[in-house]
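writing this on my phone so excuse typos. first protein, seq and then structure
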Amino acid sequence: MVKGNWQKEISEAITSVDELLNILDLQTSIAGDQLMFAPEFKLLVPRAYVSRMQKGNPQDPLLLQVLPRVLEACNVEGFSVDPLAERAVSPVPGLLHKYYGRVLITMAASCALNCRFCFRRHFPYAQNIIDENTCMGILAYIANDKTITEVILSGGEPLLISDAKFNTFINALEKIEHVKILRIHSRMPIVVSARITEELLCSLRKSRLQIVVVVHCNHANELVSAVTESIDKLRAAKVSVLNQSVLLRGINDNADALIALSYKLFNSGILPYYLHMLDKVQGAAHFAVSDTLARRLLAEVQSKLPGYLVPQLVREVPRATSKTRL
């Protein structure tokens, strides 16, 4: 199979800590004993994303999202490999049924960019592979529960599957009459904007389902012109585009950064939706922000932004029936 531009970008992504530091002129700025050079959850970052990082800045907010550090090896009380108890809400492989009226499908086992704070970094994807048999089981489960009106595609990265596979799946989903909404949680429009192909847009445009794409952007520096172009294409296909961020220590844990993010999202055609508290996954405790600081930041953001640009500050609590607002 001939690779498209987006597939080529992913195949050429950086997987070496040394190479990343060399590109950013950081060989001598970060001590080697602070870094994890062979992490189990590997470094993976496309070069286009790296080009948005500031050379010579070890505190660059995009770099800190992807750079493996020895802090990940620290076992911190209250942090676990399954922080949301997702294994208990998987009635069939590849599907999670946490909330009334909607289900989530883990369409892919990998991403285009490995975020160090990923709450599914320990998820048992090998037990949840989406193949033909698994897909049939998922569709049967959805068809047999008429309370399900919304299907959420997540992962990993759901848009890592090919356009052909995506089109086949969406066609099958459309045959289930009680399903009305398809929501796609994806970093791809932000990280590898070329993934928003005409074939994908055609599948979205012609669907009878109401399509929602929730992008994951944590800092205004991620929003470059290529991102805006991909969002424009989605909106032209009558797709609603929202954003969810994670509140991260050292990256966006100040009001100025959050305000700049909301404005730049809106300028790019994206509506702020959720600002998540960190899920307590083992290996990510160094990103955690306290509830006290989070509430103070939200109050300051609310005092300076119109309501439609203020994301909901939430956390996910295992076995709760919805997100929990702070």
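second protein below, same order as before
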Amino acid sequence: MSTTQKKTVGGVIKHYAKRYFITAMGAMAQGLFASLLIGTIFKALGMIPHMGFLADIGAYAQAMAGPAMGVAIAHSLGAHPLVIFSCAAVGYAANALGSKGGPLAVFVIAIIAAEIGMLVSKKTKVDIIVTPFVTIFVGAGLSMLIAPAFDTAAGAVGTFIGWAMTQAPLIMSIIVSVVIGMVLTLPISSAAICSALIMTGSMAAQGSSEGLAIAGAAAVAGCCAQMIGFAVVSFRENKWGGLLSQGLGTSMLQVPNIFKNPAIWIAPTLASAITGPLAVCVFDLKMYGAAINSGMGTCGLLGPIGMILGWYDTANGYPYEVTALNWVGLILVCFVLPAVLSFVFDLILRKLGLVKDGDMKLEL
């Protein structure tokens, strides 16, 4: 293969990797946010006396997770309207049949259905029949054939993570905290990954282990470390606008700067390697809220809020007494320690000349 051919192949791979694993996965996360996550918030508000109708609204929103993800994915791929609308049915089928691995099943099957749907879209005079027929036939057919395998796979991975967490909580909490935290900063959906791997103990009655509740807490710690860490260490460049946009929005804003100088990523990542095991081994934090919250960090404060909701959600039956140590740990792990540790590590990196003023400047 010639150099030109290699470059062409490399370009094609990069194009589709970005299309599916960044664009489509990011859209899937938005679909989850607009259904499952907002539904969780409504259900939490429904716990307020005389506000029970909000819990009903939340249940309706949560029930639409599959269609919302399917439509979001198809839209992100630039599909035609009939393909997008048809992917609502595809998303429903894949999520329902995929069960624990529903989000991952929707991700794969909705992409295939949307791409095949686009092959026939606007190609015939009876497009209004052909396009939805083909898209739904492919998507629902694949859901019946392979979606249950995603349930099995997600269950197996989740079981392994849960088992490993109980066997080696120190090591595994570092791994989970660092990896999920870095994924949150990258243009990949940490929330979708945590949802697919069921990083919560709220499903314990359906077979998940306590270890997944521990993994969820470590994931929250890692995500908070990245967001609060970058918000604090880049304050000299980005001031209050940067503090809020990264601390309550997303640390993904720093990706272009990370490509220019990867050293700026060291401080928040080292912080996550410390806060993860502290959350698990010292403060005994466990996530019993929605799995998607495990990958949210301080985005809208949904990581800590998800953990708090899990503590007091009687439907999930949080099996432990919530102590003052848990509350202190939540505040330290999600806010105080990421700020302090990242600030200290960043000072060291600047002393060493690895990070310089302007390296984390955002175009706000």
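The chain has two domains: 9-154, 168-359. thats all i got for now
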